[in-house]
Write a structure and sequence with these properties.
- Pfam families: adh_short.
- There is one protein chain.
- By secondary structure, this protein is α/β, with parallel strands linked by helices.
- It has one domain: 3-Layer(aba) Sandwich (Rossmann fold).
- Helices cover 43% and strands 17% of the residues.
- Strand 1, helix 1 and strand 2 form a beta-alpha-beta unit.
- Helix 1 packs parallel to helix 2, helix 1 packs across helix 8 and helix 3 packs parallel to helix 4.
- The longest helix has 26 residues.
- The termini are far apart.
- 46% of the residues are buried.
- The model has no long low-confidence stretch (mean pLDDT 96).
């Protein structure tokens, strides 16, 4: 996919995987819109890459629609990447009682509903794009997690939400194939994102030893490079790709 002259939209683009992806897409020639609930972070990233920022909740229609329209105003919207997500831990039945239902709903709302919100609105816009030489009109990349397959104790909400993201991939790709719009999901393992910075250096070092090779935390720019690789290869469609250094999470 040729990104020069096109636009892209990245949710959760104010930090971590999303910020790295926004930078990579801009370096590849796309004009990027950054959507993030943290308005200041979104504006900082957008300013750094010559893009535009839209503040808002990914699960709400108005800000997502505004972001899609802002991107389309910069050029044909060819790439949309869902990176926004949360990962609070809670046990189904713990010392404090049953899992808080509102917390479960919030995780699913942000991670799954928010991802579908981007998918439906971005794909609808992409279907009206002029086709490129091979008939492709657009690409939606969603972010699951290896927790979708290797969910650990205390991760029921997170694993369920990311499992839902993975499950969206094939039916969405099948439905959008007639328009030349691809859908691919990336399932990262342990990456050094702002969440990791809340841990002690010792804890980060311990987690970094878990992948088989490379035996370290993934780097956000490695996730971003995978997004570009997916964009470059039209055979990648309707699938979930693990990006984890051969890591398989233990139960706890």
């Amino acid at each position: 996919m040729e990104l020069r002259g096109a636009s892209a939209l990245v949710t959760g683009g104010g930090s971590g995987l999303g910020a790295a992806t926004a930078r990579a897409l801009a370096e590849a020639g796309a004009r990027v819109v950054v959507l993030d609930i943290n308005e200041g972070a979104a504006r900082d990233v957008a300013a750094a890459i010559g893009g535009a920022a839209i503040p808002g909740d990914v699960a709400e229609e108005a800000p997502m629609q505004a972001a899609v329209e802002a991107a389309a105003a910069l050029g044909p919207l060819r790439v949309a990447v869902a990176c926004a997500g949360i990962a609070p831990a809670a046990r189904v039945a713990g010392r404090q009682g049953p899992h808080d239902l509102a917390l479960f709903e919030r995780v699913v709302r942000v991670n799954l509903v928010g991802t579908f919100n981007l998918l439906r609105l971005a794909a609808a816009r992409m279907t009206s794009n002029p086709p490129m030489a091979d008939g492709e009109r657009g690409l939606v990349v969603t972010t699951a997690s290896i927790a979708a397959e290797d969910g650990q104790i205390g991760q029921c909400a997170y694993a369920a939400s990311k499992g839902g993201v993975a499950a969206l991939t094939l039916p969405a790709a099948r439905e959008l194939a007639r328009f030349g719009v691809r859908v691919v999901t990336l399932a990262p393992g342990l990456f050094h994102t702002p969440l990791m910075d809340t841990l002690t250096p010792e804890a980060r070092e311990s987690l970094g030893k878990m992948p088989l090779f490379p035996a370290r935390l993934g780097r956000p720019e490695e996730f971003a490079r995978m997004v570009l690789a997916v964009a470059a290869n039209p055979q990648l469609n309707g699938t979930t790709i693990r990006l984890d250094g051969a890591l398989r999470l233990p139960p706890a």
